[in-house]
Design brief:
The chain is mainly β. About 0% of the residues lie in helices and about 65% in strands. The strands form two sheets. It has a twelve-stranded antiparallel β-barrel with strand order 2-5-6-7-8-9-10-11-13-14-15-16.
Amino acid sequence: MLSVGLCSLSAEDGDASKYTISLEAGYTSQVVVNGVAKHGDGVPYMGFGFNKPLSLVNVYGSAKLVPEPDGDASQSHWTIGLSKELAVGDWSLEVAAEASRHQHGVWIPDSTELAAGVALVNPWVTPYVKAVTDLDLEQDGYVLGVKKDFSLGGDSLSLSITPVVEWYKFTDYDSFLAGVDVSANVSNGFFSHFKPFAAVSYVDSNIDLADFNFASEEIDGDVTVTTGLMYSF
């Protein structure tokens, strides 16, 4: 599943000498934004992102591009945001605010979205909440989620595993997602810039309207898969 939402890229808060830029390409069986389908078919996609710490906040952005032979069916999702981490020992509070532009293609209108979120990072699990308003699709709501990061392996090769559960409640729909993200990390030389990844998710959405313009279809308990390769520098 190609999921578009609050972006998080690795960088140390407040260290202006550090930054991350990433490029990725892959294949997804479904494009999901805020818990609902936006495409309907399996497609290849491209993406990029950046994170630049400043003295007070992190500035980040991302884009997901889904090209199609028929240009009218192509879509893209763009995000720019600010984040800040407030840490005390092993606990930290991460807050973020962002704006997104969704160019959907097909019959879904293009839309602008504003969002703000907060996460409580700790040694056990990370709960988070995000408030969202879509100015054009007239869908307002919130996301409640919890995730846990695991790492397996040694210094030269390791796996990052992140189970996640999310519940979405919006004006005309609600949705449930449970999945796991897996990526491989290599620490040796040139290959340390490359990260293969995969994600498998169960998604179940319940749309209240018979006629809706904010999703390509209603996802009824489907399993979605995304796999790809990321290059970071």
